[in-house]
Amino acid sequence: AQTKELVEPAAVALVGVGISTILGCVGFLQGMSVASFGDALFVLLGTDITRFVLPVIFCRFFVPASGSEGLRARFAWAAVVGVAASANMYLRAEGRLHNFSLLFGTQAASY
Question: Is this structure's pTM higher than 0.85?
């Protein structure tokens, strides 16, 4: 019962940290008003990061490898799989990778 109480806030925190990190990396947060922050989030929803990477992170976090997999392990694996998804997307855009083997391999290894 205590684990279930931690999952929802943890998921919200994971998504919030992910979005904040993405926005921070792009440089959106420097001197930004609340309105422009909202505009930036709206634009972000149309990007490949939110269409591809965040669903992969969400899936790995909420589909644990076993009943005994802890919250920290799920966070860690979700982050690793998210980085692999980002790298896979980047390498495909550059033409250096023509499939999803990096993502699928990392996803399989996480289980």
Answer: no
Shortest CA distance to 58 belongs to which of 15, 103, 100, 20? 15
Q: Cα(78)–Cα(6) distance, rounded to whole angstroms? A: 16
CA distances from 52 to 9, 29, 55, 72, 102 (A): 22, 23, 6, 23, 14
Tokens at residue 104, please?
Answer: 């699928």
pLDDT digits (tens, 9 = 90+) for 78-97: 989 988 998 898 888 899 99
In order, the DSSP letters of the chain are -HHHHHHHHHHHHHHHHHHHHHHHHHTTTTT--HHHHHHHHHHHTTSHIIIIIHHHHHHHHHS-SSTT--HHHHHHHHHHHHHHHHHHHHHHHTTS--SSHHHHHHHHHH-
